[in-house]
Amino acid sequence: MALNEEAGTERVGSAEREDFGELMRKLHPVKSFVRRSARLDDRLQRAWDRYADHFLLSLPQGDRDLEVAAGFTFDRDFVRKAWGNDHDLIIEVGSGQGENVAAAAAAHPELNFLALEVYDPGVAHALLFAGRDGLENLRIAQVDAQEFFGHLGAGVAREIWTFFPDPWPKMRHHKRRIVQSGFAAQVRHALAEGGVWRIATDIEDYALHVHEVMDGDAGFENAGTITVSLPTEHVGKGNAEDAAALPHADFTESERFEGRVLTNFEKKGLAAGRVIHDFTYRRA
Questions:
Q1: Are 150 and 70 in contact, with CB atoms under 8 Å apart?
Q2: Which of the four, 116, 181, 202, 277, has the lowest number of CB atoms within 10 Å?
Q3: Does the annotation flag 120 for ligand binding?
């Protein structure tokens, strides 16, 4: 590195900047969420205090917040110990307020469910549902899903759900969207043979993003049955209204997943006039 004596700082060349940037990306990978604190109200705090010991998974803590320790593997043996049975497992990535995963667990006692959530209120709501309704087939983990998926054993899950992930609408933030080729590879590894990744979004540009990432992935088959028309160029938060005037093309998507309950979040999207896009990608 050349020393800029006048400024008293080091001047970094372009190649060195690229190397440094790559190092920073490895040390601090792009996250699909922003960690924020939120105080629990009395009702949610009581739910946490009462039910966390039973329904919140205790995972070995990694070096950073919401990460698990290196060397830990979430495999079928761990599922048997944590759930006390050998039932098939469904993982919901980003369970929000827990409405959907709790309803699914109540409707399907023959299956195990794991809710992944980072935010305290969402975790507390899921704990409240699990404890109130006695959902012994539901467990919650407060972890960074992107990091956690690197610890999943091969074929550990029958299905993986990612419903209404953060759309990161600004163009410069699209790289933060959780549906990315690297995460898709981890999902495929975690899925059992014939397993599916179900995705839903009410953001048209995110739907295009999902198609770009997934339709060309040889590890998955698009199991959709309906045709939808989408713009073929991306828009950001500031110019989303321009999407209708862009060139469009036909894409294959799925009918609404009947196993997804109509949550308050989805109701708000429908009330705002947004179209829900459902995807079913089967492990090839």
A1: no
A2: 181
A3: no
pTM above 0.90, yes or no: no
Q: Which residues pair with 2 in a beta bridge?
A: 11
* From 166, 217, 242, 250, the catalytic residue: 166
Q: Are 90 and 157 in contact (CB under 8 A)?
A: yes
Residue 49, marked binder? no
Residues 174 and 168 sit within 8 Å (Cβ to Cβ): yes
Residue 114 has pLDDT above 50, yes or no: yes
DSSP 47-105: HHHHHHHHHB----B-SSTT-BPTT--B-HHHHHHHHSS---EEEEE--TTSHHHHHHH
Is position 278 annotated in a ligand binding site?
no
Asked whether 283 and 191 are in contact (CB, 8 A), the reply is: yes
Q: What is the pLDDT of residues 123-164, one digit of tens each?
A: 999 999 999 999 999 999 999 999 999 999 999 999 999 999
The residues, any chain, with a CB within 8 Å of residue 177's CB and separated by 6 or more, are: 32, 165, 166, 167, 168, 206, 209
Q: Is domain 41-283 given the CATH code 3.50.50.60 in the classification?
A: no
Element (H, E) at 122: helix 120-133
273 phi and psi, to 5 degrees? 85, 15
Question: Any idea which residue has 């609404």 for tokens?
Answer: 256
Is 170 annotated in some ligand binding site? yes
Distance of CA 87 to the CA centre of its chain: 22
Is the distance from CB of 178 to CB of 165 less than 8 angstroms?
A: yes
In the residue annotation, 75 being an active-site residue is answered as no
**Banded pLDDT at 264 (limits 50, 70, 90):** confident
User: Looking at the predicted structure, is the pLDDT value of residue 274 above 80?
Assistant: yes
Type of residue found at 193: E
Rg of the chain over Cα atoms, rounded to whole angstroms, equals 21
